[in-house]
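User: Teach me something about this protein's shape.
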Amino acid sequence: MIKTALITGAAKRVGKAISIHLASRGWNIAIHYNSSDFDARKLQEELSRDFPEQQFELFKADLSQADEVESLLPAVFDTLGNPGLLVNNASVFERSFLGQTTTELLDRQMNVNFRAPFILTRNFAKMAKSGLVINFVDTRIVNNQSGFAAYSLSKKTLWEMTKMAALEFGPNIRINAIAPGLTLPPEEKGEDYLLKLAGDIAMKRPGGLDPILKSMDFILENDYLTGQLLFCDGGENLGLAN
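Assistant: First, the predicted structure itself:
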């Protein structure tokens, strides 16, 4: 039986890579997007061409709007049936120290990075009855650096929710998290930006997408794993190397 995965922020970057990876392993994909309409439709066309026996449907929702988040899973169920996998990948990432963080910025970060995964995870547990949730956090959750204060707090909160939800919704729903590190450069910067940062971590190089995809496979295949966090960060969570 072909399985279905809902991936938030599926049209670009990490979300796109996850979509292609899971499709190549036989999954139907519910491609969530918000503003990336062109990229989402292009991805849908590519996947439909490469995997004609599977289904790839588009679902638009603004994750900063609670009502749109609430309606996302019901729309997926109506179109593709019960998704066996929810990947909370989408996030917003804005620089601001704690003292300069406006209430509006805090709301924006928390609503997309925490509230939306909270709603989707809760609704998935109610509707799917069984399955797997993978939440994307960040290696920043282990430190207290405040350069991206609201973002870091939203990801710290998402990790705490992951553990709480794993305990409450087990055994039928498994919930785990992945914490990437130096994966892709920001869209306005090149690979040299990551190479410079990588000089301060244990592995001395960016990881790219491969460690994330391998970690997803590990979570999918290990059916006794729940409430756990896999760091895909080349040891960045250990602190900066001398």
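Now, about its shape. The radius of gyration is 17 Å. The chain has a mean pLDDT of 95. If you'd like, I can walk through any region in more detail.
User: That's plenty for now, thanks!
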